[in-house]
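Hi support team,

I submitted a single chain yesterday and got back a structure, but I'm not sure I'm reading the token output correctly. Could someone confirm the output below corresponds to the sequence I sent? I've pasted both exactly as they appear in my results page.

Thanks,
R.
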Amino acid sequence: MIFTYRPEWGICFMASPQLEKGYTRIANEILEALSTVQMSGSEWQFVMCLFRKTYGYNKSEDWITGSQIALMTGLRKERVSEAKQRLIDRKIVTEKRNKISFQKDYERWVELRKSVTVVTEKRNTLLRKSVNTKDNKETYTKDTSNQGLRVDKSVDMKNKFNSVGAEIIKAFELVDAKNKNYYANTTQRSACDFLIREYGLKTTLDRIAVLPKTNGMQYFPTITTPVHLRDKWVQLENAVTRKRVEAGGTESRVAF
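Hi R., thanks for writing in. Yes, this is the structure output for that exact sequence:
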């Protein structure tokens, strides 16, 4: 159940959505395809608003301004603009002659996750021994072809990832000590870069600071790594909002 608290009246109203009041027709195949796609919270909000503004009115496209999306979502206009551009770049949303539409052909969507090279456990062991700093510029591994040392360009951490991501890994060490092994983990560092781009370093660190308290609490997702935080960001915000409503809070959005 969702309750809306009205402090001026001192009571809560329970939302009661009914199909008779209107509904949006979306093909099950689209919902199933979207369930496999990794998107940020603001991107999801943009897509939901797009559905409402187009399919909700039996349209396939429409002129939709950033101000309209901002009003519906509560996002700042610049966040709306950023989300829109990312969705266009990934071909999930299209824009022609200032009209915006959802790309139903999900085969055209560009996946955010890039293919990861699978390496053997022996090579991983050599890699862990060779990394002496959190952001090692070059990693040297054994070259079996000539019994010499070669530079492994695939783990050039400073060139490939934002060095500030190391601060996020460091913060996560207080959540789970295993994170001390993730400074050279490409999957975790990629998640750090996403968090920095999407939410900023300070906001991300503020989120991490609450995790030792929220992990294990009812309704809260368990988050112990940067990847978890990236994938469960919206769940965490929703859980905090729910907790505040239950406690009689009046804020409609999460503020850490």
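A quick pointer for reading it: The chain is about 45% helix and 10% strand. Let us know if anything else looks off.

Best,
Support desk
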